[in-house]
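> @MW can you paste both from yesterday?
MW: sure, first one:
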Amino acid sequence: MKPTPGPATTPDTPRDLVGIGIGPFNLSLAALAHPLAELDAVFYEQRPTFTWHPGLLLDGARVQVPFLADLVTLADPASPWTFLNYLKARDRLFPFYFAERFHIQRTEYDAYCRWVASSLPGLHFRHQVDAVRWNPERDIFEVDHTQLDPSGQAETLGRTYTRNVVLGIGTEPHIPDPLRPLTDAPGVPVIHSADYLDHRATLLTADHITVIGSGQSGAEIFLDLLRHRPAGRERLHWLGRTPAFAPMEYSKLGLEHFTPDYTRYFHALPEPVRDHLLTSQWQLHRGIDTDTITAIHDELYRRTLHGGWPDAVLTPGVRVRTAGRIATTKIELHLEDIHQSTRSRLTTDAVVLATGHRERPLTRLLAALDPYLRRDSHHRPRIDEHHRLALDPAITAAGCHLYVQNAERHTHGVGTPDLGLAAWRSATILNALTGKEPYPLPHRTAFTTFGLEQRQPQIPAARQYEARTLTPLRDGI
């Protein structure tokens, strides 16, 4: 490992890279940037420590990608920051070997990321980034930040100059408009799934609980509540908009939608085609893993062994039209069956909104850069294949760029939030940023051929001898 880099020569000395946000994706970038001695990088995060969906770290819940999809392995298996090296450092390599687990628990993935975050230099927690600006006189980005004290209050102001910025500010809980009134219901427990564990004890005291959302988090929370409720008195409702509590597409060829090959194919499609594809691919990323579906059915079945049915209602294909508080301790949901066009009301004592997450808007951070940003027909940032925002040529001519992580689903497809593409994307960014190829990337990653016209990644001259070319077949052969 290289020694901890010293600070910039003076406060005005520009850095090569400033990362904003320290979630798994920017942590991956920091880990892969670590051995690049010539790269001066720093990362800022407003939280006091690394955390990864703490409200959903349920006992037994597993990450939905194999352990090889750690922060670095798929770009650099020899990195000191692999999950296997974490196990070795904790003297747990043999127990993991005998456990024969390809998918690890979420709590273990979180612990692994915290191990990396606590060991890497250049990570600054309790630093809130307030704005990113372009300084045309110096041809450099300015990043304004506030250092926070342990109570989260502003302590000192700072400014960092940098040639490149990588935005990894993550996602935020999403609450659909019809459900927003529920968050203003004092005295009635209404929580988003992101905060589930913090409120589980309170939820379990409610007489009747409703879970809204038919994805993985909704399934896991419904299962957890079911296991903690007495048989015959479960008093649970589980509602979802999808036509079924459907399994996630997990076939081997289906998973190839989460490869660099498919990402390149998707990025090259026209904007309207990309938008249509995203809405039709929900089962690739919003379904439920089959183990969780099986566990739910097993638990429900177990409760029928002595006669009777559990007091649990599972209804897909339902949307909440409106919602509000009645009296002081109850909630009324106005429901509509999407296919029958029938309507009903449901009164409940507590609600868990397992309604997913959305990309955190970039507008606040990038307000000062708005005149320089290039947007598509829906006013979304245009993003190139190297995950760079399209900017005014005055900026890019100076060799400066803004990169994004997990904010480009509209341009890069369903694999954008997938942990399995974290290392590849980080390596892609570092290769583009350095103008070299510190991380050689594979030319082909899928057996599926996406499209009739193939787009191959650009290969540096030094490696072109390795590239394999296909000779077109003659007609009739």
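MW: second:
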Amino acid sequence: MQSITILGATGSIGASTLDVIGRHPDRYRVHALTAQQRVPELAALCARFRPEVAVVGSPESAAALSVLLREADVRTEVAYGEAALCEVASAEECDAVMAAIVGAAGLAPTLAAARAGKKVLLANKEALVMSGQIFMDAVRDSGATLLPIDSEHNAIFQSLPQSYSRVPAHHGVARILLTASGGPFLRRAVETLDAVTPEEAVAHPNWVMGRKISVDSATMMNKGLEVIEAHWLFGAGAEQIEVVIHPQSVIHSMVSYRDGSVLAQLGNPDMRTPIAHALAYPERIDSGVEPVDLTRIGQLDFLKPDFKRFPCLQLAYSALSAGGSAPAILNAANEVAVQAFLDRRIGFRMIDQLIAGVLERMPGAALDDIGSLLDEDRRARETAQSLIP
């Protein structure tokens, strides 16, 4: 019986995780559930899964949640704030942590879980993009187990030898091939992208995701962040990580070996597959996902990404090559730009322009600790806000 904390329980990854957990009540129990402000949804989850603790973002949300739990006769302890998130992520009663809080807000509790030596199921790519070496050092020093949840990185993990030690050359690995759907605008005329609306950008053709990550998929910044994440997870240089557009989202990623072999992981586009894999690793359990029917799909297509259509992908490669705080600056600027787009303050094609403007004004610096990282993150956000018309 494993005790699980889910950071970001009311999001799409949280919902998929709880679906898998609900299929295996003999294997998993929920220690803590967290949400920022979706109080009714969190209360309903507490009523079903009966966690010891529930954490929300503010005292007002905590008060509202307490009322709903009392009315439902649920005896879950209620807490709020970042310190409470870190506490449930590192609690002695917790065996594994699903890190699914979107954006930089997930860094502190995810890092707390790593430092506490937990089994960390990493769905928050921004935490690793931002903190890079700091995060990997925490995993190494504490003896934590780090398992990727992004479908692409989970596929790479499954396609590597079990003894893989983050040194590609030692295992005959030539390249990592990250697949990308291309999002909703893969074949839309580039000159019309200025007119893209938030409603169009969040309508992903294959995956059901939150609004922010859906926009990231439309700009392919999501894939750029995954390139940086793959660098830290697998010890691969930027030149060893290749993005391949694969519109059907059946092959979730591949590993190319020196002998000419290419190993791939295939499946239907459903996040319950990588979640079940990580929860039970190294075993396999039922995820509720139907096996992929290749005869029904019939055809698999592959394309090279066009950096003119997807300049955010090029910006991510440049930030990875620059190193230091550049990936954290990239991530912070992107979060501000995407929110401004969703709020209709800027157009779709201004997202990459805003990020590029911040990177030009902040060349990046060496990161020695979390304090300097958070300072760079704050400065990048302020710079991005100043560039919004």
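> thanks! The chain has 17 helices and eleven strands.
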